[in-house]
Hints:
- The protein starts with a strand and ends with a strand.
- By secondary structure, the protein is α/β, with parallel strands linked by helices.
- The protein has helices at residues 25-35, 83-86, 118-125, 160-184, 214-217, 220-235, 238-243, and strands at 3-13, 40-42, 54-64, 69-79, 93-99, 106-111, 130-137, 145-150, 154-155, 189-198, 201-208, 245-253, 258-266, 271-272.
- Strands 5, 6, 7, 8, 9, 10, 11, 12, 13 and 14 form a ten-stranded mixed beta sheet that branches. The protein has a four-stranded antiparallel beta sheet with strand order 1-4-3-2.
Amino acid sequence: MTVHRFEGQKLAGTSLDSQGERLKLEDLQAYVAFCSGRKLPLHQQHQMSEPTTGFIENVRLVQEGVADDWAVLGDVTVESGAFDKGMRGFSISFMAPLVEREHANCSLYIPYPHYNNQEFVEELASDSDLKIGKWVKKSAETTTYALFGATIAFALTPVWDHVYKSRIAPIIDRFLDDHLEQLGSKNLSLEHVQIVLQGGHEVELRFIPERGKERWCFNQQCITTGIALVAQNLLTNAVANEYGVQRVVLRYSKTSRAYEISRIEYRNGHIDV
């Protein structure tokens, strides 16, 4: 397969960006530490629902210019089939806290420019069971969805469904009751993130709903059926057993009226689609 490789591409920095923000050096340091030794999938405009276009590796932090600015660089490989889209630029995304609560049961990460809306953040913060963060994405396009999930992780053991139904599902239901309409007033839809434990690693399950049908797509039956599909796949997945899984992306299908596995991202950089 023909690929296009771009070494030393600037992915982010502390200088003033197109969104009028300066990233904090400590946030960039944390991001680089997270990337150490990893091969990161390259997503189109950070959209998990779209196919990946390649990968980023050798992420590092370097000082640039004479103004004590810092930049995150990475070596980017773009697959030829997605070359045109990939050439629009490369950037990073990460989560950073806004309102921390030690014992919160649910978390919500909101995109730019909403995390700069102090009134909106304070409205959300009136929920004492909600941890709030900003989803920093240096993308030209406006992001129209937020990420939410229970802060409780659970292992994919034979009793995982009981744990989900008794502990996680009530948290998700209450969040939707309290905040779905509130987020909709800002033209924000939702994607759901759930962390599960498998093979000694944390695995992110990303549930992408049908837009406008979040209430249905995040109901207990839909989510548990999706998790069961993941558990069955990982149980017999040789690559997962050898290298471990970083993320599983599930997309709701209007045809089957259920979640289907869209992509599995492994810890060695391999991706199954």
